[in-house]
Protein backbone atom coordinates (compact mmCIF):
# COMPACT_ATOMS: atom_id res chain seq x y z
CA UNK A 1 0.00 0.00 0.00
CA UNK A 2 1.09 3.56 -0.55
CA UNK A 3 3.28 4.59 2.42
CA UNK A 4 2.74 1.08 3.79
CA UNK A 5 -0.47 2.32 5.36
CA UNK A 6 -4.03 1.02 5.03
CA UNK A 7 -6.66 3.58 4.17
CA UNK A 8 -9.33 3.63 6.90
CA UNK A 9 -12.01 6.21 6.04
CA UNK A 10 -14.52 7.36 8.68
CA UNK A 11 -17.56 9.60 8.42
CA UNK A 12 -16.66 12.85 10.17
CA UNK A 13 -20.20 14.10 9.79
CA UNK A 14 -23.67 13.90 11.30
CA UNK A 15 -24.67 10.27 10.73
CA UNK A 16 -21.07 9.10 10.99
CA UNK A 17 -19.84 6.41 8.63
CA UNK A 18 -23.40 5.58 7.53
CA UNK A 19 -23.05 8.67 5.34
CA UNK A 20 -20.25 7.15 3.30
CA UNK A 21 -20.50 3.41 3.88
CA UNK A 22 -21.45 0.82 1.29
CA UNK A 23 -25.06 0.75 2.61
CA UNK A 24 -25.38 -3.05 2.87
CA UNK A 25 -28.00 -4.05 5.37
CA UNK A 26 -26.74 -7.22 7.04
CA UNK A 27 -27.37 -8.31 10.62
CA UNK A 28 -24.86 -11.08 11.21
CA UNK A 29 -25.51 -14.56 12.53
CA UNK A 30 -27.70 -15.44 15.50
CA UNK A 31 -24.80 -17.42 17.00
CA UNK A 32 -22.71 -14.24 17.24
CA UNK A 33 -25.17 -12.73 19.66
CA UNK A 34 -25.74 -15.96 21.58
CA UNK A 35 -21.97 -15.95 22.06
CA UNK A 36 -22.07 -12.35 23.37
CA UNK A 37 -24.64 -13.46 25.94
CA UNK A 38 -22.62 -16.56 26.84
CA UNK A 39 -19.68 -14.29 27.66
CA UNK A 40 -21.74 -12.87 30.54
CA UNK A 41 -23.80 -10.15 28.82
CA UNK A 42 -27.37 -10.69 29.94
CA UNK A 43 -30.02 -9.74 27.40
CA UNK A 44 -27.68 -9.76 24.39
CA UNK A 45 -28.69 -13.15 22.95
CA UNK A 46 -30.22 -13.21 19.46
CA UNK A 47 -33.79 -13.83 20.63
CA UNK A 48 -33.65 -10.75 22.87
CA UNK A 49 -32.03 -8.63 20.15
CA UNK A 50 -34.23 -9.48 17.17
CA UNK A 51 -36.95 -7.01 18.32
CA UNK A 52 -34.31 -4.25 18.34
CA UNK A 53 -33.21 -5.06 14.80
CA UNK A 54 -36.83 -4.92 13.75
CA UNK A 55 -37.71 -1.81 15.73
CA UNK A 56 -35.73 0.55 13.48
CA UNK A 57 -36.67 -1.14 10.28
CA UNK A 58 -39.00 -0.04 7.53
CA UNK A 59 -38.67 -2.99 5.15
CA UNK A 60 -39.73 -1.83 1.70
CA UNK A 61 -38.72 -4.82 -0.39
CA UNK A 62 -41.86 -6.82 -1.17
CA UNK A 63 -40.30 -10.16 -0.33
CA UNK A 64 -39.38 -9.00 3.19
CA UNK A 65 -42.67 -7.51 4.24
CA UNK A 66 -44.39 -10.64 5.53
CA UNK A 67 -41.29 -12.17 7.11
CA UNK A 68 -41.26 -12.58 10.91
CA UNK A 69 -37.68 -11.27 10.76
CA UNK A 70 -38.64 -7.90 9.30
CA UNK A 71 -40.96 -5.04 9.98
CA UNK A 72 -42.46 -2.03 8.27
CA UNK A 73 -42.84 1.44 9.74
CA UNK A 74 -39.50 2.05 11.48
CA UNK A 75 -37.25 5.01 10.81
CA UNK A 76 -34.68 3.14 8.71
CA UNK A 77 -35.81 2.20 5.22
CA UNK A 78 -34.44 -1.01 3.72
CA UNK A 79 -34.69 -1.65 0.00
CA UNK A 80 -33.06 -3.64 -2.73
CA UNK A 81 -30.79 -1.65 -5.01
CA UNK A 82 -32.93 -0.44 -7.86
CA UNK A 83 -30.56 -1.32 -10.70
CA UNK A 84 -28.58 -4.49 -11.20
CA UNK A 85 -26.22 -5.48 -13.97
CA UNK A 86 -27.56 -8.45 -15.95
CA UNK A 87 -24.54 -10.45 -14.89
CA UNK A 88 -25.62 -10.20 -11.23
CA UNK A 89 -28.40 -12.74 -11.89
CA UNK A 90 -25.92 -15.24 -13.28
CA UNK A 91 -23.51 -14.82 -10.38
CA UNK A 92 -26.16 -15.07 -7.69
CA UNK A 93 -27.98 -18.03 -9.17
CA UNK A 94 -24.76 -19.95 -9.78
CA UNK A 95 -24.87 -20.63 -6.03
CA UNK A 96 -27.97 -22.78 -6.47
CA UNK A 97 -25.98 -25.25 -8.56
CA UNK A 98 -23.67 -25.66 -5.57
CA UNK A 99 -26.55 -26.39 -3.20
CA UNK A 100 -26.90 -22.88 -1.74
CA UNK A 101 -30.25 -21.13 -1.54
CA UNK A 102 -30.88 -17.61 -2.81
CA UNK A 103 -32.76 -16.23 0.18
CA UNK A 104 -32.94 -13.64 2.94
CA UNK A 105 -29.61 -13.93 4.75
CA UNK A 106 -31.03 -11.78 7.58
CA UNK A 107 -33.80 -14.33 8.11
CA UNK A 108 -34.01 -17.87 9.42
CA UNK A 109 -30.66 -19.00 7.97
CA UNK A 110 -27.65 -16.96 7.00
CA UNK A 111 -25.79 -19.43 4.78
CA UNK A 112 -26.74 -18.69 1.18
CA UNK A 113 -26.70 -16.23 -1.69
CA UNK A 114 -28.59 -12.94 -1.92
CA UNK A 115 -29.07 -9.77 -3.90
CA UNK A 116 -27.85 -6.75 -1.97
CA UNK A 117 -30.24 -4.94 0.38
CA UNK A 118 -29.31 -1.49 1.51
CA UNK A 119 -30.15 1.31 3.89
CA UNK A 120 -31.90 3.08 1.03
CA UNK A 121 -34.93 5.29 0.54
CA UNK A 122 -36.43 5.54 -2.93
CA UNK A 123 -33.22 4.10 -4.27
CA UNK A 124 -30.96 6.64 -2.58
CA UNK A 125 -28.81 6.44 0.56
CA UNK A 126 -30.61 6.51 3.88
CA UNK A 127 -27.95 7.42 6.44
CA UNK A 128 -28.68 7.32 10.17
CA UNK A 129 -28.89 11.13 10.09
CA UNK A 130 -31.57 10.99 7.40
CA UNK A 131 -33.38 8.09 9.07
CA UNK A 132 -33.31 9.06 12.74
CA UNK A 133 -32.36 12.72 13.16
CA UNK A 134 -34.22 14.53 10.39
CA UNK A 135 -37.70 13.38 11.50
CA UNK A 136 -37.11 14.58 15.09
CA UNK A 137 -35.09 17.67 14.29
CA UNK A 138 -37.86 19.97 15.55
CA UNK A 139 -38.09 18.38 19.00
CA UNK A 140 -37.51 20.94 21.72
CA UNK A 141 -35.42 18.55 23.81
CA UNK A 142 -32.94 17.78 21.02
CA UNK A 143 -29.96 20.08 20.52
CA UNK A 144 -27.26 19.25 18.01
CA UNK A 145 -24.05 21.22 18.11
CA UNK A 146 -22.55 21.03 14.64
CA UNK A 147 -18.87 21.55 13.77
CA UNK A 148 -17.99 20.65 17.34
CA UNK A 149 -14.89 18.63 18.09
CA UNK A 150 -14.91 16.79 21.41
CA UNK A 151 -11.57 16.77 23.21
CA UNK A 152 -12.38 14.90 26.39
CA UNK A 153 -14.93 13.79 28.92
CA UNK A 154 -14.66 15.48 32.29
CA UNK A 155 -14.71 13.25 35.34
CA UNK A 156 -14.78 14.32 38.99
CA UNK A 157 -13.72 12.25 41.96
CA UNK A 158 -15.95 11.93 44.98
CA UNK A 159 -14.05 9.87 47.53
CA UNK A 160 -13.29 6.66 45.72
CA UNK A 161 -16.06 7.19 43.11
CA UNK A 162 -15.44 8.65 39.70
CA UNK A 163 -18.32 10.47 38.09
CA UNK A 164 -18.47 11.81 34.54
CA UNK A 165 -20.10 15.24 34.54
CA UNK A 166 -19.23 17.09 31.36
CA UNK A 167 -17.74 17.23 27.90
CA UNK A 168 -15.00 19.56 26.73
CA UNK A 169 -15.18 20.44 23.06
CA UNK A 170 -14.06 23.00 20.53
CA UNK A 171 -16.47 25.02 18.48
CA UNK A 172 -14.40 27.99 17.49
CA UNK A 173 -13.20 28.36 21.07
CA UNK A 174 -12.99 25.72 23.77
CA UNK A 175 -16.30 25.07 25.55
CA UNK A 176 -17.63 22.80 28.29
CA UNK A 177 -21.10 21.38 28.55
CA UNK A 178 -22.36 19.66 31.68
CA UNK A 179 -24.74 16.72 31.81
CA UNK A 180 -27.74 16.63 34.12
CA UNK A 181 -27.87 12.86 34.06
CA UNK A 182 -25.25 11.07 32.03
CA UNK A 183 -22.95 11.25 29.03
CA UNK A 184 -23.28 8.92 26.04
CA UNK A 185 -20.13 8.43 24.03
CA UNK A 186 -20.84 7.33 20.42
CA UNK A 187 -17.71 8.29 18.54
CA UNK A 188 -17.15 4.88 16.92
CA UNK A 189 -14.57 2.14 17.36
CA UNK A 190 -11.59 4.39 16.65
CA UNK A 191 -12.59 7.63 18.32
CA UNK A 192 -14.44 6.34 21.39
CA UNK A 193 -11.38 4.60 22.85
CA UNK A 194 -9.28 7.61 21.84
CA UNK A 195 -11.60 9.96 23.74
CA UNK A 196 -11.68 7.70 26.78
CA UNK A 197 -7.89 7.65 26.85
CA UNK A 198 -7.69 11.43 26.42
CA UNK A 199 -10.02 11.62 29.43
CA UNK A 200 -7.69 9.47 31.56
CA UNK A 201 -9.70 6.26 31.19
CA UNK A 202 -7.51 3.55 29.69
CA UNK A 203 -4.44 1.38 30.22
CA UNK A 204 -2.47 3.03 33.06
CA UNK A 205 1.01 2.54 31.57
CA UNK A 206 -0.01 3.98 28.24
CA UNK A 207 -1.69 7.01 29.81
CA UNK A 208 1.40 7.70 31.89
CA UNK A 209 3.57 7.40 28.81
CA UNK A 210 1.34 10.05 27.17
CA UNK A 211 1.47 12.29 30.29
CA UNK A 212 -2.27 12.00 30.79
CA UNK A 213 -3.39 11.90 34.45
CA UNK A 214 -4.92 8.48 35.14
CA UNK A 215 -8.56 8.79 36.17
CA UNK A 216 -9.37 5.12 35.88
CA UNK A 217 -7.15 2.21 34.89
CA UNK A 218 -9.11 0.37 32.17
CA UNK A 219 -6.69 -1.98 30.38
CA UNK A 220 -9.18 -2.96 27.65
CA UNK A 221 -9.64 0.52 26.19
CA UNK A 222 -8.31 0.47 22.62
CA UNK A 223 -7.50 -3.24 22.80
CA UNK A 224 -9.32 -6.15 21.14
CA UNK A 225 -9.60 -4.31 17.80
CA UNK A 226 -11.18 -6.55 15.17
CA UNK A 227 -11.98 -5.94 11.53
CA UNK A 228 -13.17 -8.00 8.60
CA UNK A 229 -10.40 -8.49 6.12
CA UNK A 230 -10.54 -9.84 2.61
CA UNK A 231 -8.61 -10.14 -0.61
CA UNK A 232 -9.78 -7.75 -3.24
CA UNK A 233 -9.51 -7.40 -6.98
CA UNK A 234 -10.08 -11.02 -8.02
CA UNK A 235 -11.46 -10.72 -11.54
CA UNK A 236 -13.13 -13.15 -13.95
CA UNK A 237 -13.52 -12.40 -17.65
CA UNK A 238 -16.80 -13.44 -19.33
CA UNK A 239 -18.40 -13.52 -22.77
CA UNK A 240 -21.96 -12.16 -22.65
CA UNK A 241 -24.65 -14.50 -24.06
CA UNK A 242 -24.60 -14.63 -27.89
CA UNK A 243 -28.33 -13.95 -28.15
CA UNK A 244 -27.79 -10.43 -26.80
CA UNK A 245 -27.57 -7.47 -29.16
CA UNK A 246 -24.63 -5.11 -29.03
CA UNK A 247 -26.23 -2.65 -26.55
CA UNK A 248 -27.24 -5.47 -24.20
CA UNK A 249 -23.77 -6.95 -24.40
CA UNK A 250 -22.24 -3.59 -23.53
CA UNK A 251 -24.49 -3.32 -20.50
CA UNK A 252 -24.02 -6.92 -19.39
CA UNK A 253 -21.55 -5.68 -16.80
CA UNK A 254 -21.02 -2.09 -15.78
CA UNK A 255 -17.96 0.06 -15.96
CA UNK A 256 -17.35 2.23 -12.93
CA UNK A 257 -15.17 4.71 -14.76
CA UNK A 258 -18.05 5.42 -17.17
CA UNK A 259 -20.99 5.08 -14.80
CA UNK A 260 -21.33 8.83 -14.43
CA UNK A 261 -21.69 9.45 -18.17
CA UNK A 262 -24.38 11.69 -19.63
CA UNK A 263 -26.65 8.78 -20.51
CA UNK A 264 -26.75 7.44 -16.92
CA UNK A 265 -27.25 10.91 -15.48
CA UNK A 266 -30.20 11.46 -17.82
CA UNK A 267 -31.68 8.10 -16.80
CA UNK A 268 -31.30 9.07 -13.17
CA UNK A 269 -32.89 12.49 -13.52
CA UNK A 270 -35.62 11.69 -16.06
CA UNK A 271 -36.69 8.17 -15.10
CA UNK A 272 -35.27 7.55 -11.61
CA UNK A 273 -33.49 4.55 -13.05
CA UNK A 274 -30.23 3.39 -14.59
CA UNK A 275 -26.84 2.23 -13.33
CA UNK A 276 -26.42 5.16 -10.94
CA UNK A 277 -29.06 3.38 -8.83
CA UNK A 278 -26.89 0.27 -8.60
CA UNK A 279 -24.52 -0.51 -5.81
CA UNK A 280 -21.28 0.95 -7.07
CA UNK A 281 -19.33 -2.17 -6.26
CA UNK A 282 -21.47 -5.17 -5.47
CA UNK A 283 -25.02 -6.14 -6.40
CA UNK A 284 -25.03 -9.32 -4.37
CA UNK A 285 -23.23 -11.44 -1.87
CA UNK A 286 -23.04 -14.90 -0.33
CA UNK A 287 -22.30 -16.43 3.03
CA UNK A 288 -20.44 -19.69 2.49
CA UNK A 289 -18.57 -22.32 4.46
CA UNK A 290 -14.98 -23.35 3.86
CA UNK A 291 -13.60 -26.60 5.25
CA UNK A 292 -12.82 -24.75 8.49
CA UNK A 293 -16.51 -24.08 9.20
CA UNK A 294 -18.75 -26.53 11.06
CA UNK A 295 -20.69 -28.36 8.34
CA UNK A 296 -23.53 -29.20 10.71
CA UNK A 297 -24.60 -25.70 11.67
CA UNK A 298 -25.60 -22.47 9.97
CA UNK A 299 -22.43 -20.56 10.79
CA UNK A 300 -20.62 -19.61 7.55
CA UNK A 301 -17.05 -18.39 7.85
CA UNK A 302 -16.68 -16.39 4.61
CA UNK A 303 -18.70 -13.61 3.01
CA UNK A 304 -18.34 -13.11 -0.74
CA UNK A 305 -19.09 -9.75 -2.31
CA UNK A 306 -19.91 -9.99 -6.01
CA UNK A 307 -19.17 -7.13 -8.32
CA UNK A 308 -20.82 -6.83 -11.70
CA UNK A 309 -18.33 -4.11 -12.65
CA UNK A 310 -15.60 -4.96 -15.17
CA UNK A 311 -13.17 -2.46 -13.71
CA UNK A 312 -13.89 -3.31 -10.08
CA UNK A 313 -10.29 -4.49 -9.58
CA UNK A 314 -8.67 -1.21 -10.48
CA UNK A 315 -11.34 0.83 -8.64
CA UNK A 316 -10.89 -1.08 -5.42
CA UNK A 317 -7.11 -0.93 -5.73
CA UNK A 318 -7.41 2.85 -5.92
CA UNK A 319 -9.86 3.00 -3.02
CA UNK A 320 -7.49 1.00 -0.83
CA UNK A 321 -4.48 2.92 -2.11
CA UNK A 322 -2.70 -0.21 -3.22
CA UNK A 323 0.59 0.73 -4.80
CA UNK A 324 -0.16 1.08 -8.51
CA UNK A 325 3.08 -0.70 -9.47
CA UNK A 326 1.58 -3.88 -8.04
CA UNK A 327 -1.81 -3.69 -9.72
CA UNK A 328 -1.55 -1.86 -13.04
CA UNK A 329 -0.23 -4.85 -14.98
CA UNK A 330 -3.00 -7.03 -13.52
CA UNK A 331 -5.76 -5.10 -15.22
CA UNK A 332 -4.17 -3.88 -18.43
CA UNK A 333 -6.11 -6.58 -20.34
CA UNK A 334 -9.49 -5.42 -18.92
CA UNK A 335 -10.05 -2.82 -21.62
CA UNK A 336 -13.37 -1.13 -22.25
CA UNK A 337 -14.56 -3.86 -24.60
CA UNK A 338 -13.90 -6.64 -22.11
CA UNK A 339 -16.71 -7.83 -19.86
CA UNK A 340 -15.67 -9.02 -16.43
CA UNK A 341 -16.83 -9.37 -12.85
CA UNK A 342 -15.17 -9.54 -9.48
CA UNK A 343 -15.46 -11.47 -6.23
CA UNK A 344 -14.12 -10.28 -2.90
CA UNK A 345 -13.98 -12.97 -0.21
CA UNK A 346 -13.67 -11.83 3.40
CA UNK A 347 -13.28 -13.77 6.61
CA UNK A 348 -16.27 -13.38 8.92
CA UNK A 349 -14.72 -14.20 12.29
CA UNK A 350 -11.04 -13.25 12.20
CA UNK A 351 -8.96 -14.42 15.14
CA UNK A 352 -6.32 -11.69 14.83
CA UNK A 353 -6.59 -8.85 17.30
CA UNK A 354 -5.21 -5.34 16.92
CA UNK A 355 -5.18 -2.20 19.03
CA UNK A 356 -5.50 1.57 19.07
CA UNK A 357 -3.12 3.79 20.97
CA UNK A 358 -2.65 7.51 21.32
CA UNK A 359 0.27 9.15 19.62
CA UNK A 360 0.12 12.06 22.04
CA UNK A 361 -2.23 13.86 24.40
CA UNK A 362 -3.21 16.23 21.58
CA UNK A 363 -6.88 15.53 20.71
CA UNK A 364 -6.31 16.64 17.11
CA UNK A 365 -3.67 14.00 16.51
CA UNK A 366 -4.97 10.79 14.94
CA UNK A 367 -4.26 7.67 17.00
CA UNK A 368 -2.04 4.79 15.96
CA UNK A 369 -4.23 2.04 14.48
CA UNK A 370 -2.73 -1.45 14.31
CA UNK A 371 -5.21 -3.98 12.91
CA UNK A 372 -2.71 -6.87 12.93
CA UNK A 373 -4.36 -8.54 9.94
CA UNK A 374 -3.28 -12.18 9.52
CA UNK A 375 -1.43 -12.19 12.83
CA UNK A 376 -3.27 -15.43 13.46
CA UNK A 377 -2.45 -17.74 10.50
CA UNK A 378 -5.98 -19.15 10.59
CA UNK A 379 -7.33 -15.94 9.02
CA UNK A 380 -5.10 -16.31 5.97
CA UNK A 381 -5.86 -20.02 5.69
CA UNK A 382 -9.60 -19.36 5.55
CA UNK A 383 -9.18 -16.78 2.80
CA UNK A 384 -6.95 -19.08 0.77
CA UNK A 385 -9.49 -21.86 1.22
CA UNK A 386 -12.27 -19.61 -0.07
CA UNK A 387 -10.54 -19.68 -3.47
CA UNK A 388 -11.53 -23.34 -3.81
CA UNK A 389 -15.14 -22.24 -3.56
CA UNK A 390 -14.61 -19.54 -6.19
CA UNK A 391 -13.15 -22.14 -8.53
CA UNK A 392 -16.22 -24.33 -8.05
CA UNK A 393 -18.46 -21.35 -8.66
CA UNK A 394 -16.94 -20.51 -12.01
CA UNK A 395 -17.22 -24.15 -13.06
CA UNK A 396 -21.04 -24.12 -12.65
CA UNK A 397 -23.13 -24.45 -15.77
CA UNK A 398 -24.37 -20.86 -15.53
CA UNK A 399 -20.86 -19.50 -15.31
CA UNK A 400 -19.52 -21.83 -17.98
CA UNK A 401 -22.26 -20.63 -20.33
CA UNK A 402 -20.51 -17.28 -20.03
CA UNK A 403 -17.10 -18.92 -20.43
CA UNK A 404 -16.11 -17.37 -17.08
CA UNK A 405 -12.34 -17.53 -16.57
CA UNK A 406 -9.94 -16.12 -14.04
CA UNK A 407 -8.00 -13.09 -15.21
CA UNK A 408 -4.70 -14.72 -16.22
CA UNK A 409 -2.66 -11.65 -15.27
CA UNK A 410 -1.03 -12.24 -11.92
CA UNK A 411 -0.12 -9.81 -9.18
CA UNK A 412 3.51 -8.96 -9.89
CA UNK A 413 4.79 -9.61 -6.36
CA UNK A 414 3.46 -13.19 -6.41
CA UNK A 415 4.25 -14.23 -9.97
CA UNK A 416 6.82 -16.77 -8.75
CA UNK A 417 3.91 -18.97 -7.61
CA UNK A 418 1.51 -21.00 -9.75
CA UNK A 419 -1.81 -19.11 -10.01
CA UNK A 420 -3.65 -22.26 -8.92
CA UNK A 421 -1.53 -22.81 -5.81
CA UNK A 422 -2.39 -21.92 -2.20
CA UNK A 423 0.97 -20.13 -1.97
CA UNK A 424 -0.08 -17.75 -4.73
CA UNK A 425 -3.33 -16.83 -2.98
CA UNK A 426 -1.67 -16.47 0.41
CA UNK A 427 0.79 -14.08 -1.24
CA UNK A 428 -2.04 -12.32 -3.08
CA UNK A 429 -4.00 -11.79 0.13
CA UNK A 430 -0.97 -10.16 1.73
CA UNK A 431 -0.55 -7.67 -1.13
CA UNK A 432 -4.15 -7.01 -2.12
CA UNK A 433 -5.43 -6.92 1.46
CA UNK A 434 -8.76 -5.26 1.81
CA UNK A 435 -10.35 -3.92 4.94
CA UNK A 436 -14.12 -4.24 4.81
CA UNK A 437 -14.21 -1.15 7.07
CA UNK A 438 -15.73 -2.86 10.08
CA UNK A 439 -13.55 -1.94 13.06
CA UNK A 440 -15.21 -2.96 16.34
CA UNK A 441 -14.68 -4.08 19.93
CA UNK A 442 -12.20 -1.50 21.22
CA UNK A 443 -14.40 -0.73 24.26
CA UNK A 444 -15.83 -4.18 24.56
CA UNK A 445 -18.80 -5.10 26.72
CA UNK A 446 -18.30 -7.73 29.38
CA UNK A 447 -18.67 -8.52 33.06
CA UNK A 448 -16.44 -6.90 35.69
CA UNK A 449 -14.38 -10.07 36.12
CA UNK A 450 -13.18 -9.72 32.51
CA UNK A 451 -10.24 -7.34 32.96
CA UNK A 452 -10.51 -6.17 29.33
CA UNK A 453 -14.23 -5.37 29.46
CA UNK A 454 -14.76 -1.61 29.23
CA UNK A 455 -18.56 -1.42 29.60
CA UNK A 456 -21.07 -3.62 31.39
CA UNK A 457 -24.13 -5.16 29.76
CA UNK A 458 -26.04 -1.89 30.25
CA UNK A 459 -23.22 -0.18 28.32
CA UNK A 460 -22.02 1.73 31.42
CA UNK A 461 -18.27 2.23 31.68
CA UNK A 462 -16.90 0.02 34.45
CA UNK A 463 -15.51 2.16 37.23
CA UNK A 464 -16.88 5.55 36.06
CA UNK A 465 -20.44 6.57 36.87
CA UNK A 466 -22.77 8.42 34.48
CA UNK A 467 -20.87 7.43 31.36
CA UNK A 468 -22.04 5.03 28.69
CA UNK A 469 -20.54 3.99 25.36
CA UNK A 470 -23.04 3.16 22.62
CA UNK A 471 -21.49 2.36 19.25
CA UNK A 472 -19.62 -0.34 17.34
CA UNK A 473 -16.79 -0.31 19.88
CA UNK A 474 -18.83 -2.17 22.51
CA UNK A 475 -19.22 -5.40 20.54
CA UNK A 476 -17.64 -8.15 22.66
CA UNK A 477 -16.38 -9.63 19.42
CA UNK A 478 -16.99 -9.01 15.74
CA UNK A 479 -20.17 -10.38 14.22
CA UNK A 480 -20.47 -12.41 11.02
CA UNK A 481 -21.53 -9.65 8.66
CA UNK A 482 -21.46 -5.93 8.04
CA UNK A 483 -21.54 -3.82 11.16
CA UNK A 484 -23.92 -0.91 10.50
CA UNK A 485 -27.24 -2.68 11.24
CA UNK A 486 -25.78 -4.28 14.39
CA UNK A 487 -24.57 -0.85 15.57
CA UNK A 488 -28.05 0.59 15.01
CA UNK A 489 -29.48 -2.36 16.95
CA UNK A 490 -27.03 -1.60 19.81
CA UNK A 491 -28.24 2.01 19.76
CA UNK A 492 -31.90 0.94 19.91
CA UNK A 493 -31.23 -1.30 22.89
CA UNK A 494 -29.06 1.36 24.52
CA UNK A 495 -31.85 3.93 24.11
CA UNK A 496 -34.27 1.57 25.86
CA UNK A 497 -31.86 1.03 28.73
CA UNK A 498 -31.42 4.78 29.18
CA UNK A 499 -35.19 5.19 29.38
CA UNK A 500 -35.49 2.29 31.82
CA UNK A 501 -32.82 3.83 34.05
CA UNK A 502 -34.06 7.41 34.12
CA UNK A 503 -37.79 7.49 33.53
C1 LIG B 1 -16.06 2.97 3.77
C2 LIG B 1 -16.97 2.21 4.70
C3 LIG B 1 -17.87 1.29 4.17
C4 LIG B 1 -18.71 0.57 5.01
N1 LIG B 1 -19.68 -0.22 4.48
C5 LIG B 1 -20.62 -0.78 5.28
C6 LIG B 1 -21.74 -1.46 4.75
O1 LIG B 1 -21.94 -1.51 3.54
N2 LIG B 1 -22.63 -2.03 5.59
C7 LIG B 1 -22.45 -1.99 6.94
O2 LIG B 1 -23.26 -2.59 7.66
N3 LIG B 1 -21.41 -1.33 7.48
C8 LIG B 1 -20.51 -0.69 6.70
N4 LIG B 1 -19.51 0.03 7.24
C9 LIG B 1 -19.39 0.08 8.69
C10 LIG B 1 -20.44 0.95 9.37
O3 LIG B 1 -20.65 2.14 8.65
C11 LIG B 1 -19.96 1.23 10.79
O4 LIG B 1 -19.87 -0.01 11.48
C12 LIG B 1 -20.90 2.14 11.56
O5 LIG B 1 -21.05 3.37 10.91
C13 LIG B 1 -20.33 2.35 12.96
O6 LIG B 1 -21.11 3.29 13.62
P1 LIG B 1 -20.55 4.06 14.88
O7 LIG B 1 -21.67 4.88 15.37
O8 LIG B 1 -19.92 3.09 15.81
O9 LIG B 1 -19.35 4.99 14.37
P2 LIG B 1 -19.30 6.08 13.23
O10 LIG B 1 -20.29 5.77 12.18
O11 LIG B 1 -17.86 6.19 12.85
O12 LIG B 1 -19.78 7.43 13.93
C14 LIG B 1 -18.99 8.13 14.85
C15 LIG B 1 -19.45 9.57 14.93
O13 LIG B 1 -18.74 10.23 15.97
C16 LIG B 1 -18.27 11.47 15.49
N5 LIG B 1 -17.05 11.78 16.24
C17 LIG B 1 -15.95 11.01 16.40
N6 LIG B 1 -15.04 11.65 17.14
C18 LIG B 1 -15.56 12.84 17.46
C19 LIG B 1 -15.09 13.95 18.21
N7 LIG B 1 -13.90 13.96 18.78
N8 LIG B 1 -15.91 15.03 18.34
C20 LIG B 1 -17.13 15.04 17.76
N9 LIG B 1 -17.63 14.02 17.05
C21 LIG B 1 -16.84 12.94 16.89
C22 LIG B 1 -18.03 11.25 14.01
O14 LIG B 1 -18.05 12.49 13.32
C23 LIG B 1 -19.22 10.36 13.66
O15 LIG B 1 -20.35 11.15 13.39
C24 LIG B 1 -18.64 0.76 6.43
C25 LIG B 1 -17.74 1.69 6.96
C26 LIG B 1 -16.92 2.43 6.11
C27 LIG B 1 -16.00 3.43 6.71
UniProtKB/TrEMBL annotation:
Keyword Cytoplasm: no
GO terms of molecular function: flavin adenine dinucleotide binding; oxidoreductase activity, acting on CH-OH group of donors
Keywords annotated in UniProt: FAD, Flavoprotein
Domain Glucose-methanol-choline oxidoreductase N-terminal: residue ranges: 11-34, 188-202
Residue sites binding FAD per the record: 13, 150
SUPFAM superfamilies: FAD-linked reductases, C-terminal domain (SSF54373), FAD/NAD(P)-binding domain (SSF51905)
Family membership: Belongs to the GMC oxidoreductase family.
PANTHER family: GLUCOSE-METHANOL-CHOLINE GMC OXIDOREDUCTASE, GLUCOSE-METHANOL-CHOLINE OXIDOREDUCTASE N-TERMINAL DOMAIN-CONTAINING PROTEIN
Protein name: Glucose dehydrogenase [acceptor]
Organism from which the protein derives: Camponotus floridanus
Amino acid sequence: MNNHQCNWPLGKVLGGSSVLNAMYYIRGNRRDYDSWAALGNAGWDYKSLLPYFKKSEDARAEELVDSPYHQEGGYLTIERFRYKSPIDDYIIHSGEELGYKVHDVNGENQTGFTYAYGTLRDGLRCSTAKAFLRPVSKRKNLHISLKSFVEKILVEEDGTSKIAYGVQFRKGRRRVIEAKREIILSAGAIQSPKLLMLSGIGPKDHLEEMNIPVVHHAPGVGQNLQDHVGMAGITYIVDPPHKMNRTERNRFTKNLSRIGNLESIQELIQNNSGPLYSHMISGGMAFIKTKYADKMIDYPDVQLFFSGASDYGLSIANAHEINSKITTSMYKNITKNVQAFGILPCILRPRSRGFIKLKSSNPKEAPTIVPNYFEDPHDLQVLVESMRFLRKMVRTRLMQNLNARLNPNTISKCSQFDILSDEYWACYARYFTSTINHPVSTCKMGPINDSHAVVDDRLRVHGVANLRVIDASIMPHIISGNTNAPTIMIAEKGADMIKQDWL
